[in-house]
Write a structure and sequence with these properties.
The protein has 221 residues and is an all-alpha fold. Helices cover 65% and strands 0% of the residues. It has a single domain, classed as Catalytic domain of cyclic nucleotide phosphodiesterase 4b2b, CATH 1.10.1300. The longest helix is centred in the last third of the chain and has 20 residues, at 200-219. The two termini are 23 Å apart.
Length: 221
């Protein structure tokens, strides 16, 4: 099982850690501090929106902890972390193009400090979360997708909090009956895959637990 947080907000200390980390990332990308602070405030506003129950700063905090845990396996650490920060920047339960809009945002903001190849790399990581299939067949893309779905292999009590948080995000757009139909379809599609996790390490350690949690959720619907 993976140790993750599922809650609406971070505490002030955790938020301070995130703020400092984003500024450090931007320094590594040669972005001026004034712009970095402006970008962080924008991200903070997006991720702390009142409709964010799961896709919030806590989710980013969890993913960054996984980045630290697997840092020696990540080939492009700065670009990988940038994609982590922006992959859910735009998130509207009523929309169908959140991934694309998030990718467009990061391209717009960082076009002056990243070359075309780097921007394309970040774009591929973010867009891979649309349907959760890798746009690039490499270790970074596999790990990026696996980190994003790491919650599926959490302890059952944490998984249940996640499942409820997703419903809280979608209830503004769907009645419960329609939501359950869509949720079942998504979960069954994951079970039908040969692999939920693409990286060898996640597949070996967490695949069985993720499938067990998904089956338990399906049995409860």
């Amino acid at each position: 099982m993976i140790d993750l947080l599922v809650q609406k907000e971070l505490n002030s200390e955790q938020e301070a850690v995130l703020s400092a980390r984003f500024l450090e990332l931007c320094q590594g990308l040669k972005l001026p501090d004034s712009q970095a602070k402006e970008y962080y405030q924008q991200l903070y506003g997006l991720y702390t929106d009142s409709n964010r129950h799961y896709h919030n700063l806590v989710h980013i905090f969890n993913l960054l902890n996984l980045v630290d845990r697997y840092q020696t396996s990540i080939e492009q650490p700065l670009l990988f972390e940038l994609a982590v920060w922006y992959h859910d920047a735009i998130y509207n339960a009523k929309a169908k193009n959140n991934e694309l809009q998030s990718a467009i945002l990061v391209q717009k903001l960082f076009s002056k400090c990243l070359d075309r190849s780097s921007l394309s790399y970040v774009n591929a990581l973010i867009m891979s979360t649309e349907g959760h299939f890798p746009k690039l067949e490499n270790q970074d893309t596999y790990l990026f997708l696996d980190f994003d779905l790491s919650i599926l292999a959490a302890a059952p009590s944490v998984y249940n909090l996640y499942s409820e948080a997703i419903w809280q995000e979608y209830k503004i757009a769907y009645i419960k009956v329609l939501y359950n139909m869509g949720r079942k379809k998504v979960l069954k599609n994951f079970l039908a895959r040969d692999k939920i996790y693409f990286s060898p390490v996640f597949f070996a350690k967490y695949e069985a637990k993720a499938r067990q949690n998904i089956r338990l959720e399906l049995n409860g619907k």
